[in-house]
Automatic annotation (TrEMBL):
GTPase that associates with the 50S ribosomal subunit and may have a role during protein synthesis or ribosome biogenesis. This is GTPase HflX. It holds the Pfam family GTP-bdg_M. It comes from Paenibacillus filicis. Keywords: Coiled coil, Cytoplasm, GTP-binding, Magnesium, Metal-binding, Nucleotide-binding. Residues 168-195 form a coiled coil. Monomer. Associates with the 50S ribosomal subunit. Its main location: cytoplasm. Belongs to the TRAFAC class OBG-HflX-like GTPase superfamily. HflX GTPase family. The keyword Coiled coil applies. Residues 209-373 form the Hflx-type G domain. It is found in: Cytoplasm.
């Protein structure tokens, strides 16, 4: 078969027209902004390496079951694609297999929807075994019901946008083979999740306090992690620059060491298959003792992005966790606009590149994590128990009292309960009582 003039070859950049259909149901959604959604689609396309040649929008009561957009609009899109020399059409909403097939046959270009575009970006970002498994699982789950709708894409393994990762090797396999592969990936992912749970439990047993960085994609989480911990992490001004969670040790001014974890960024209309596949990764937020919600204060859609993060945290069961909101990128705002930044609960206005602001974050974390001072009596020969006290709290004073050591330690209530549980687990100690400063928590 003679290849189409619009076929995307491996060494050819995708040149696309972006299409948005605004239906009545979308207009009724509280936080939906068609202009912002289309602007975000442009950024997604650019992140995926697509050259955006133009955009096309349509207002319609509901989507056309055959063409998604109306037949007349489809003809208008075809004319624009030919005039611009585009080889790809990217839709801001999710398409059915039949719609993909019909549009591809009529337009003679590659058809990509928002979900497939995000999956393609994730395929390029995944580096760890867990991330690669999760992306492939999400891609195959997306492709399975659409195999009959792939049309020429099934015979055109030309590469390019929308066919990275398993796309190049799995599109021509039958449904049974894909189902088998999905089952195998789920089994592998369960094993990875089991190891992740073991690591979490190990961190809990050591008494290390865990803090998760969460936020909308490109809010500056990875930059903040790098600036606070000098971590060698990938930082770039693009969507989903970070896919795999990264944990680094962070020492607070008082000497207490905590674990700071960067998580995958959230986005509006994150594909359901992707949320399901990445649940194990996102649950880093759910397992954390404290959450730093990083917000891009320089975007006009700041409130919408904050709402999206709240929704995802609620879905994960982490909405009620103690958190501190960080309004990042305030260096890009005029002073008056900066002072207007506010939200419920505690917050800081910061720039990730300001040493002074980084110090304020560390001080705020220490205030949250460290509470009242307590006094502990521990046998001097129990070095493992003494080491645990230093890890969990901030030792203010210590002295020898006969064969015991007395430690005055600043520790919050949650960590105090954890410390009591951990100390009781040692054969060397049994918790008798524990009070605030002025009384003694004795272990015999």
């Amino acid at each position: 078969m003679k290849p189409s003039v619009h076929e995307v070859t491996p060494d050819q950049q995708a040149r696309a027209v972006l299409v948005s259909l605004v239906t009545q149901s979308l207009k009724r959604e509280e936080n939906y902004d068609p202009d912002y959604s289309l602007a975000e689609l442009i950024r997604l396309a650019e992140t995926a390496g697509v050259e955006v040649l133009g955009t096309l929008s349509q207002n319609k009561e509901y989507a056309d079951s055959k063409w998604f957009i109306g037949k007349g609009k489809a003809q208008e899109l075809k004319d624009e694609l030919e005039a611009l020399g585009a080889n790809t059409a990217i839709f801001d909403q999710e398409l059915s297999g039949a719609q993909v097939r019909n549009l591809e046959q009529f337009l003679d270009v590659k058809i990509i929807d928002r979900t497939q575009l995000i999956l393609d970006i994730f395929a390029g970002r995944a580096k760890t075994r867990e991330g690669i498994i999760q992306v492939e699982l999400a891609q195959l789950s997306y492709l399975l019901p659409r195999l009959s709708g792939q049309g020429k894409n099934l015979s055109r393994l030309g590469g390019g946008i929308g066919t990275r990762g398993p796309g190049e090797t799995k599109l021509e396999t039958d449904r049974r083979h894909i189902r088998d592969r999905i089952s195998e990936l789920k089994r592998q992912l369960q094993e990875v999740v089991r190891h992740r749970v073991l690591h979490r439990e190990r961190r809990k047993k050591t008494g290390v306090f865990q803090v998760a960085l969460v936020g909308y994609t490109n809010a500056g989480k990875s930059t903040l992690l790098r600036q606070l911990t000098q971590a060698d992490v990938y930082v770039e001004n693009q969507l989903f620059a970070t896919l795999d969670p990264t944990s680094r040790a962070l020492k607070l001014p008082g000497g207490m060491e905590i674990v700071l974890t960067d998580t995958v960024g959230f986005i509006q209309n994150l594909p359901h298959d992707l949320v399901a596949a990445f649940r194990a990764t996102l649950e880093e937020a759910n397992e954390a003792d404290f959450i730093l919600h990083v917000v891009d204060s320089s975007t006009e859609m700041m409130e919408v992005q904050m709402h999206v993060v709240d929704e995802v945290l609620e879905e994960l069961g982490a909405h009620g966790k103690e958190r501190l909101t960080l309004f990042n990128k305030t260096d890009l705002l005029p002073p008056k606009q900066r002072e207007m930044l506010t939200t419920e609960g505690e917050f800081l206005r910061i720039s990730a590149y300001s040493e002074q602001d980084l110090g304020r974050i560390l001080d705020a974390l220490e205030r949250h994590l460290m509470g009242d001072s307590r006094t502990f009596r521990i046998p001097a020969e129990k070095g493992d128990v003494i080491s645990l006290v230093y890890r969990v709290g901030e030792v203010l004073e210590n002295e020898v009292d006969g064969g015991d050591m007395l430690f005055k330690v600043r520790v919050n209530n949650k960590e105090y309960d954890k410390l009591g549980y951990l100390l009781a687990a040692y054969d060397s100690a049994q918790l008798i009582h524990g009070e605030n400063e002025g009384e003694t928590s004795e272990y015999v």
